[in-house]
Amino acid sequence: MRVIILQTLVLAPYCCITSSFAIPIAFSQRSNGRIPALNLFFDNGDKTVADSPTKSRSGFGVDRRTIENLQNNPTIPIQFEYSDPSGSQKIIQIKQLEKDTVTDAVSLCLKEYGSYPSSITANATPFEKMVEERMSDFDNFFFTFIVLLGLGQRVERREKSDKDPSCPQDHNVLCISEIDSNQKETMFGMAEVSMQPPDPSRTSPPFVMPSYLKKVLASFYGSDSLPYISNVLITNEYRGKGFSKVLMAACEGLAKSWGYYEAYLHVDADSSSGGPAQNLYNSLGYEPVIDETYNENFTWMGSTPAMNRGLYIVDGVALLFLKKKLLSKEIQ
Length: 332
Known about the structure:
Low-confidence stretches: 1-46
CATH architecture: 3-Layer(aba) Sandwich
Helix content: 25-40%
CATH class: Alpha Beta
Structural class: alpha+beta
Number of strands: 12
Strand content: 15-25%
Mean pLDDT: 77
Largest sheet: 10 strands, mixed
Oligomer: single chain
């Protein structure tokens, strides 16, 4: 069942899409009703798995040196070889999202986060089925429009930063693709690192926020904007092969190249749906950001381990806020 939500403009654009515009928004939800599909794109990902990027004893995987190079000396774009279990070598490329690949990224997001199969019963009337189909079409159209606009803004901001040294780098969307023998690229994942106020109660907004506004918001926390990793996505057929760690290494390497030595992110707090992503980030050294004052909001629940895991309620969704200290040179 879809829910139509009407919310007013509140501190736009520093908010999730559910509160960015005073217009009706239709959400399609997963079968377990956990998180609205539109929010999934803007919250940090449970679209990753806790896998090992290094070559195993059987000789397949991503070479450890690739991870080290991305963490310590990120040169984007970069190509490297991946050895699959069958022994064949595949060429993988990581590069910045460009204007000519935005539509590929939108398709990737729509595939993973768009409308899901309807739960309408078999004995539904033809009219009910027709309404359900039209609502699904509207969901996907609106979602596509929002993602297309948001990604386009990110590309424009990054290109401006590349050309104008006075404009700081604060938005980078990295894409990972497989290149076949005909040099055709198949995008199968993406991740973003951006400069955001260190606010555990907010995720990265869907649209690019002016740098001066970020500084104003960050000042409330006695800090400047800091590297924030979000929208980590690997499609299902490429999971379990170490590519999520490759993308994370690239994001962390970019953060260090900007002169920062810590990074933040949100992840689904549910131990079932968010478990794989939590395991991934824990294995990479991310630790919870705990706010004892904020935890006082949950004293009625009694003592709970979730409070010590950096639990925050963000737009009605339980997320963990994690932080990692980035060494000047990663030790593997």
